Amino acid sequence: MDFIASLIAASIRAGTPLLFATLGEIITERSGVLNLGLEGIMITGAMTGFAVSLLTGNPWLGVLAAGLAGMAMASIHAFFSITLKADQSVTGLMLVLLGIGLTGFLGRNYIGQVAEYIQPVNIPYLSELPFVGEAFFSHDPLVYAAMLLVPLTWFFLFRTRHGMEIIAVGESPEAADTLGISVEKLRYASVLIGGFLVGIAGAHLSLAYAKLWTDGMTAGRGWICLALVIFSGWMPQRAILGAYLFGGLDVLSFKLQAAGVGVSYHLLKMIPYVVTILVLLFSVMRKKEKFGAPSALGKPYIREQRY
Amino acid sequence: MIRIERRHETPGWLVYAVPFISIAVSLLFVGLLLLTVGVNPVDAYMTMFSRSFGSKFGLTELFVKTAPIILTGLAVAIPLRAGLWNIGAEGQLYMGAFAASFIALYVSLPPPLVLPAMAFAASFMGLVWASLPGVLKAKFELNEIISTLLLNYVAIYWVDYLVYGPMRGKEVYNFPYSDIFPDFAILPRFFGTRFHAGVFIAIAIAVLLYYVVRKTGFGFAVKVVGANPKAAEYAGINRKKIIVYTMLIGGAVAGLAGMIEVGGIHMRLRSGLSPGYGYAGIPVALLAKGNPLAVILSAFLFGFLYVGGSALQTTYSIPVSIVYVFQALIVLFIIGGEFFTKYTIRRG
C-alpha cells in the first residue's frame, strides 16, 4: 500500500508541470491560436525561475518571474500570429528554437548550482490520513494550485462571459466579430494567459520537481502537452487525467530502472513518447466527439476588406 | 487610425530584400546578446568569418557541415511544398544512421557494394520512419508536427540504446560508440581534409529533386495540393497520396543525411551524432521557400552558422546554442518582413 501511495504521489508531482502547460495551451487553443512553442516557453520558465530563485533566495519570486518570462515568449507568438497574421506553426516552432537557444546561452552558469526550492506543505489533518494523506496531501503548493486550476479553468471558459467569448472567437471569429467582440484582444489575452501558465510549468520543473537547472531539461514535455490537449478534447477536466497518467509513466520508467528491471534505461525513456503517439492515435480515431478542436484553430483571422 | 491593407502588387526588390534585411537584423540582435556576456560582437563575427572562409580547413568544414543540412532542408522542403511540416528530419537522420551502421558493421557484402547498400538502407529506414506520421496524417488527419517530433525522441533514444547496448564497440571503453567501420564502408575524402563524397551526394540530390518538383507531373500535383487542397480535389489529384509520398521522400532524404554523417564524418554509430541538423532543416526550407536549389544556398548560411558557432565556442566559450537563437531570429524577422510584402500600412 505504501508503495502504491508513493507511486501516486510521485505521478502527481511529475504530472504537475504537464498539467499547468496543458491547461495553458487549452486556453490558448480555445481562442483559435495554436501555440506549438510550449517546449521553448517551458524551458524559458524553468531557467528564469531557477535563476531568480538563485539570485533572490526566494523561490516564489522565481515562480512569478517564470510566469512573466513565459508571457513574454508567448507575446512574440501573439504578435506574429495575431497582428502579423503569420503562419502559426512557423512562429511556434521558432519559439522552441529560441527558448532552447537562449536558455542554453544564458543558463550555462546555473548548471550545477543549488537554489532555494519550493518546500512541500502537508495539509493539516488530511495529510495524516492513511494512504490518501501520502498520495494526495503532502505536496508542494504548486501541485495544489494546479489541481485547483482545473475547475477554475473550466469555470472560466464555460461559465464566465470572457471565457465564452474566447470559445466563440475560437469557433467562429467572423461571427464573434460581428457581435462586437474584439477577436484580436481576446486572442492576445488567451495566448498571454497560456504563456504565463506554461512558464509556471517550467518553474515547477526546476524549482520543485527536479530542484536544479540543466540544459534541455524539459526533454520533450512541451510536445507531450500538445498531444495531451488533443487527448483531453480541449476540456480542462480531462487534462488532469492525461497529465497525471503521463506523470505516472515518467515515474514508472524511473522506478523500473531503480528496481533493476533488465530493460535498458534508454528503452524505458522511450515509453512516454511511444505512448503519447498511441494515445494521440486513439484520440483522433474516435473523432466526431461532442467537443473537438476549435473550428478556427490555427487560422489567422483577417477581417475582410471593405472598399 | 492606422489601417492595414492588402497590397495588389508587391515591389520586386522587397521580396529579395527581406531575407537579407532579416539576416542583418538577426546579427544585430545576437550582437546585443553577445555584449551581455562581455564579448565584442564585431570581433566575434570576424572570428566566425575568418574561421569559415580564411583557410582550406575552414572552407572544407563549411561544406562538410552544409551537406547534411542540405539534405535535412530538402527533407522539410519537399513535404512543405504539399503544405506539410516534417519536423522529424532529426529522427529520420538518426534512423538512417542506424541502418547504415548496421550494414557497415554486420552485413558481409562485396566491398564495392557496401557504400551503395548503406545509402539504400539509410534512405529506406528514414522512409519507413516518416511513413508513420505520413500515413497517420493521410488517414486520420493526425497533426504531423506533433507526431514527427515525438518520433525524433524515440529515434534518438533508440540509437542511444544501441550504442550503450547491443552495438557498443568492443574497444571503446566508456564511450557510447560502436566499433569503427571497415575502410570500404567509409566515404572517400578529398584534399587531405574531412571534405567527403557526401557533399556531392547532397548537392546531386538537391538538383534531382529540383527536377522532380519543377518538371514532372508529380511535382505539379504536389504544388497544387500545397497551394489549394480543394482545387486539387476538383482536379482529380489524390491529396492523401501526395501527403504520404512527400513525407516518404522527406524521410528518405533525411535518412541519407544520417548515412553521410556516419559514413563520412564519425565512421561509426555514436550517441548525439547530429547537433540538431534536422531542426536546422526547418529554417533552411523556409528561407528557400521550398525550392530545392535555393535549399543549397540557405543550407550554406546555416553551415556557416555551425562552423562559426563552434569557432565562438572555442574562442570565447560561448555555448553553440547561440546558433539556435540565430536560426529562430532569422526566420522570425523574415516572417515579419513578409508581412510588409503582403500588406501595406496606411493612415486613414
Automatic annotation (TrEMBL), chain A:
Q: How does it sit in the membrane?
A: Multi-pass membrane protein
Per UniProt, the keywords (alphabetical) are: Cell membrane, Membrane, Transmembrane, Transmembrane helix
* One MF annotation (Gene Ontology) recorded for this entry: transmembrane transporter activity
UniProt KW Transmembrane keyword: yes
Signal peptide residue numbers = none
Q: Where in the cell is it found?
A: Cell membrane
Transmembrane stretches in the record are 6-24, 36-54, 60-80, 92-111, 141-158, 188-210, 267-285
Q: Which GO terms describe its cellular component?
A: plasma membrane
- PANTHER family referenced in this protein's UniProt entry, alphabetically: ABC TRANSPORTER PERMEASE PROTEIN, SUGAR ABC TRANSPORTER INTEGRAL MEMBRANE PROTEIN-RELATED
Q: Mind telling me what this protein is named?
A: ABC-type transporter, integral membrane subunit
Q: Which organism is it from?
A: Archaeoglobus veneficus (strain DSM 11195 / SNP6)
Automatic annotation (TrEMBL), chain B:
InterPro entries annotated for this entry? ABC_transp_permease
MF-aspect GO terms: transmembrane transporter activity
**Pfam families cross-referenced by the UniProt entry:** BPD_transp_2
Localization (cell):
Cell membrane
Q: Recite the UniProt keywords alphabetically.
A: Cell membrane, Membrane, Transmembrane, Transmembrane helix
- Report which superkingdom the organism of origin falls in: Archaea
Chief localization: membrane
Topological category with respect to the lipid bilayer: Multi-pass membrane protein
Any GO CC annotation of this UniProt entry: plasma membrane
Where are the bilayer-spanning segments? 12-37, 57-80, 92-109, 115-136, 145-164, 195-213, 242-260, 293-312, 318-340
Q: Which PANTHER family match?
A: ABC TRANSPORTER, PERMEASE PROTEIN, GUANOSINE ABC TRANSPORTER PERMEASE PROTEIN NUPP
> What is the protein's given name?
ABC-type transporter, integral membrane subunit
Taxonomic source organism: Archaeoglobus veneficus (strain DSM 11195 / SNP6)
